Amino acid sequence: MSDDNTQDEAGQGESPDQLDQELADLVEETGPISKEAELLADLQRMQAEFVNYKNRVERDRDVARNLAIAEVFRALLPALDDLSRAEAHGDLEGTPFAAVVTKLRASGEKFGLKAFGAEGDKFNPELHNALVQNPTEGVTETVIAAVIESGYMVGDRLLRPAMVAVNIPLEG
């Protein structure tokens, strides 16, 4: 009989009903702790989801804002071109429109509008549209000879490529 008692004390030889009862008692004892841990995990998961949602909304709001700014500037580009041509011809000097042009450019810069494309710059097909190619002696790489229309960017977004004439190396 002492062998049976030794087995019972060691946890071996217990009946399946006794094991089920001990397991049920253990679950009952640790149940509330497990439920609290489960609720805490759910809360942490919901908090992480909310933070992700909030970040996504902010990012989407910034993207929508930048798209709206780009579209407004894209609509204004023909007017900016006309004002630049008038300024280049000297038609704006001494007129109130000179101040308007200055204010428009300052407003554009405030929102990240940048004009690009200048004579002598290296030609970049991603930023420039070559309307005319002039084979030229002494030229080793394609460079901008004249700017027909400036290109514009808002931040990293290309609104319009610069329309240019380029000098290209002579083939020979």
What does this structure look like?
The protein has 172 residues and is an alpha+beta fold. It has a domain at 114-172: Roll (Nucleotide Exchange Factor Grpe, Chain A, domain 2). The protein contains 3 helices and 6 strands, in the order αααββββββ. It has helices at 2-10, 16-88, 96-110, and strands at 113-116, 128-136, 143-149, 151-154, 157-160, 162-169. The strands form 2 sheets. It has a 3-stranded antiparallel sheet with strand order 1-4-5. Strands 2-6-3 form a 3-stranded mixed sheet, with no helix packed on it. A hairpin with a 2-residue loop joins strand 4 (151-154) and strand 5 (157-160). Helix 2 packs antiparallel against helix 3 (96-110). It is elongated and about 100 Å long. The relative contact order is 0.09.
Give me a quick take on this structure.
The protein contains three helices and six strands, in the order H-H-H-E-E-E-E-E-E. By secondary structure, it is an alpha+beta fold.
